[in-house]
Design a protein that fits this description.
Elements lengths: L23 E2 L9 E6 L10 H7 L3 E6 L16 H12 L7 E6 L1 H15 L7 E5 L18 H11 L4 H4 L2 H19 L13 E6 L7 H5 L9 E6 L11 H11 L3 H6 L4
Parallel strand pairs: 2-3, 2-4, 4-5, 5-6, 6-7
Antiparallel strand pairs: 1-3
Helix pairs in contact: 2-3
Protein name: Thioesterase
Pfam families: Thioesterase
Family: Belongs to the thioesterase family.
Length: 274
């Protein structure tokens, strides 16, 4: 289980970022792909989590993994602690890549970022995604049931990470590894925990909600709450596994679902207006 430590990797894995764009990583970049899928990580996660997705979905889908500041080869940069500043910077970075039908996928914290980014694109007069795919995260208008940890004492934060079962014990038991990991993790938790929902016109794009049947962090009712976020259709799909189902038990099933669904966005997207 290395999901919450994924952002510690240096990123030297053959990744090819978009020119002059540290935010966007493309392992199997295809300018001919009819659809582009942007993928956002969970707390502590990095772009490397989506390398297998890029290779599996190419050439029909151009996968762009978002690399947030403070991790992988951006580890020297200060991570964002507020969602509004993060989304503004991200919108600037991805605007040149919105030249074709696109969708956004986000898991856990990434789902919240993807939702707010979709609103920001609309507010800037740009197209919403052809589809918003959110995973392992309660609907944004619902209150959190989790403890506030971004400003908690280090022992409490480490104990919380152990409970999440997404960080190797070797990392949590290493003072050196924790010194590298915790600033990024605290910032990511701050992004989620300081978020304040505000009522707006729902998104027009359809929303797909994905979840693990054994996820202890998100209930089916919290996933169903995403129906209120869109004026379009909202479908909920459950997979075997816990909070990190998409990188574990259900990895192949999730990729198969995306491979079947995403190429169909092109004709739908082309008929819509910003």
């Amino acid at each position: 289980m290395e999901h919450l430590a994924a952002g510690l990797r240096t990123g030297r894995t053959g990744a090819q970022p978009a020119p002059h764009n540290a935010w966007c990583v493309r392992w199997a970049a295809s300018e001919e792909a009819p659809v582009r899928l942007f993928c956002l990580p969970h707390t502590g996660g990095g772009a490397a989590l989506y390398r297998a997705w890029a290779q599996r979905l190419a050439p029909a889908v151009d996968v762009v993994a978002i690399r947030l500041p403070g991790r992988e080869n951006r580890f020297r940069e200060t991570p964002h602690r507020r969602l509004d500043t993060l989304v503004d910077a991200l919108a600037n970075a991805v605007e040149p890549l919105l030249d074709r039908p696109h969708a956004w996928f986000g898991h856990s914290m990434g789902a919240l970022i993807a939702h707010e980014l979709s609103h920001t694109l609309r507010e800037r007069g740009l197209r919403e995604p052809g589809r918003l795919l959110v995973s392992g995260r309660r609907a944004p208008h619902l209150p959190s049931r989790q403890p506030r940890v971004h400003d908690a004492p280090t022992p409490d934060l480490v104990a919380h990470l152990r409970e999440l079962n997404g960080t190797p014990a070797a990392v949590l038991d290493s003072p050196a590894a924790l010194a590298a990991l915790l600033p990024m993790v605290r910032a990511d938790f701050a992004v989620s925990e300081t978020y304040q929902w505000r009522a707006r016109r729902p998104l027009d794009c359809p929303v797909s909600v994905l979840g693990g049947r054994d996820d202890a962090l998100t209930t089916p009712a919290e996933l169903a709450g995403w129906r209120e976020s869109t004026a379009g259709t909202c479908e909920i799909r459950m997979f075997d596994g816990g909070h990190f189902y998409l990188h574990e038990e259900a990895h192949e099933q999730v990729l198969a679902a995306l491979a079947a669904e995403l190429p169909l966005l092109g004709p739908v997207f082309a008929g819509r207006r910003p």
